[in-house]
């Protein structure tokens, strides 16, 4: 049974990256992509839903994007103080940003390494300090028209690998109720609702390919009515699919408590479902986000501390 009922129940929220160098990462998102920080939160111990990965100790979460989380698909940057680098797999293929000519010019003039694909005049490709690929494109299929219109996300697509597109489509369309927009032998494009960020799954080559998520693996988050969360978990269990974190409540100091369920698709891509009502309270833009992040970076002496002890760990 598809979980999207009453039209448009599921809302695409964000994709989670682990980052090893907050300073260069903040510079990249601000200077190259032209995003702004929406909220920043510091934690003293690991997340009960493994938001920061399977790590204990101090970590932080920074939300960054082109506008408020109520209306835009954004990125969540998690930083573990003791880890400087994460081994990358083949699971993540890129983020597509619906761009203007000014966005392309900003990236090209930023001093950051850029690539213009051969024969393209309306695409610029850049990589974050952790190697995450961003494609800034003016291509019409990613155009959102008026970028200020509510519900139209400038982060247009997340690209992920699939070992078996048939299994991927069965999971995302038939179990989770996503719309299948496009499908051929090499690619499947799905979306929870019109105007929202798409998921583009690419078939890995070879006879029996494997999606290797390594240590840098991310997570994609969606919201739904809180009272739908038990049904999402139950449907996944009935289908024999993985439930990584059964329904639980997550606290953020001084902010709203949210309920979440964490699933995994057949290739292990992590999927967070969060109760929409509380998440809208939690995710309000904090006007102090930039200063909170800058203060945390200025006070972060972890590099010096670990340098005296052999350097930060590689995950």
TrEMBL record:
Domain VOC: 11-139, 154-276
Entries under InterPro entries matching the protein: GLOD4, GLOD4_C, Glyas_Bleomycin-R_OHBP_Dase, Glyas_Fos-R_dOase_dom, VOC_core
Listed name of the protein: VOC domain-containing protein
Keyword vocabulary terms for this entry: Repeat
Keyword NAD: no
Alphabetized CDD domains for the sequence: GLOD4_C
SUPFAM superfamilies in the cross-refs: Glyoxalase/Bleomycin resistance protein/Dihydroxybiphenyl dioxygenase
Family, as annotated: Belongs to the glyoxalase I family.
